[in-house]
């Protein structure tokens, strides 16, 4: 079943075609990775999906309903949670309180237990009492994921979640992502190709604001256009 579809999604910044007529389908219960060279338009694209940036043209359907013009908070209410490269944790609150807020918003009656369960899930239960702003960057990212998961979202969008994580923490992150499906569908922007190839069931490659290819990890790896874009883009 398709959870989210975008058709002709477009966002230009002046003359720069950051996202330029992208068609995209996200299957429910899957892990879908979005990759592409720096500046390809990945963050802009997911910002359009969650409503952080208004769409210029095109449409977005989520769970069968048109959400193209909905404000971001209404998309969250419909089950779209996200984390971005710049974290939006409450730096002066404790780790516990950061997660307690979305747990409360969900209407939980067992606030403390649910909050600790969400923290435990991302491996931060031991740091519950710490002030969030004093966490290492990678742990702030994990805290944001816990905040997102505390909403029990239908879709979780993660923008470069492994950035700042130690190698030893990446296995835990992969296990975490696997543990949320199929209840939560995951859309992942990721530069670490080992993580992408290991986790994703479908990969979409953006380049210059357009879809270069979409398919299974094996098909993407074998795609000559993708290989050329990465060689040209300088990293993979
Ligand atoms: N608010 C903005 N105003 C002007 N240009 C922007 C804005 N946001 C993004 N851009 C430009 O749009 C293009 C796409 O940027 P975007 O951040 O979406 O790419 P990306 O694929 O996520 O890159 P990266 O992998 O480096 O994060 C870039 O050229 C970027 O400089």
Question: What does this 3D model show about the protein?
Answer:
The protein has 236 residues and is α/β, with parallel strands linked by helices. It is 36% helix and 27% strand. The chain has helices spanning 42-50, 72-77, 95-105, 111-121, 137-149, 167-180, 193-199, 217-221, 224-233; strands at 2-13, 16-27, 31-35, 57-62, 65-66, 80-83, 155-159, 185-189, 202-207, 210-215. The strands form two sheets. The chain has a six-stranded mixed sheet, with helices on both faces. A hairpin with a 2-residue loop joins strand 4 and strand 5. The longest helix is centred in the C-terminal third of the chain and has 14 residues, at 167-180. The two termini are 30 Å apart. The model has no long low-confidence stretch (mean pLDDT 92). The structure holds adenosine-5'-triphosphate.
Average pLDDT works out at: 92
What is the overall shape?
globular
Low-confidence spans: none
**Global Rg:** 17 Å
* Secondary structure: number of strands: 10
Bound molecules: adenosine-5'-triphosphate
Question: What labels describe this entry?
Answer:
236 residues, alpha/beta, 6-stranded mixed beta sheet, 4-stranded antiparallel beta sheet, 9 helices, globular, binds adenosine-5'-triphosphate
Short structural summary:
Helices cover 36% and strands 27% of the residues. The chain has helices spanning 42-50, 72-77, 95-105, 111-121, 137-149, 167-180, 193-199, 217-221, 224-233; strands spanning 2-13, 16-27, 31-35, 57-62, 65-66, 80-83, 155-159, 185-189, 202-207, 210-215.
């Amino acid at each position: 079943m398709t959870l989210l579809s975008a058709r002709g999604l477009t966002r230009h910044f002046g003359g720069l075609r950051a996202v330029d007529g992208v068609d995209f389908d996200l299957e429910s219960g899957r892990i879908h990775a979005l990759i592409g060279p720096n500046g390809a338009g990945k963050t802009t694209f997911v910002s359009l999906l969650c409503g952080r940036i208004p769409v210029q043209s095109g449409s977005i359907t989520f769970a069968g309903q048109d959400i193209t013009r909905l404000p971001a908070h209404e998309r969250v209410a419909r089950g779209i949670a996200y984390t971005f490269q710049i974290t939006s944790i409450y730096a002066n609150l404790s780790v516990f309180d950061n997660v307690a807020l979305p747990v409360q918003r969900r209407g939980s009656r067992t606030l403390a237990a649910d909050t600790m369960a969400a923290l435990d899930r991302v491996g931060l239960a031991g740091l519950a009492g710490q002030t969030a702003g004093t966490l290492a960057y990678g742990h702030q990212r994990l805290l944001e994921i816990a905040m997102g998961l505390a909403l029990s979202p239908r879709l979780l969008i993660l923008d470069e979640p492994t950035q700042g994580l130690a190698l030893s923490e990446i296995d835990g992150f992969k296990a975490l992502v696997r543990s949320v499906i199929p209840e939560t569908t995951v859309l992942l922007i990721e530069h670490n190709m080992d993580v992408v190839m290991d986790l994703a069931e479908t990969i979409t490659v953006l380049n210059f604001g357009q879809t270069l290819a979409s398919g299974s990890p094996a098909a993407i790896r074998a795609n000559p256009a993708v290989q050329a874009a990465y060689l040209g883009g300088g990293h993979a």
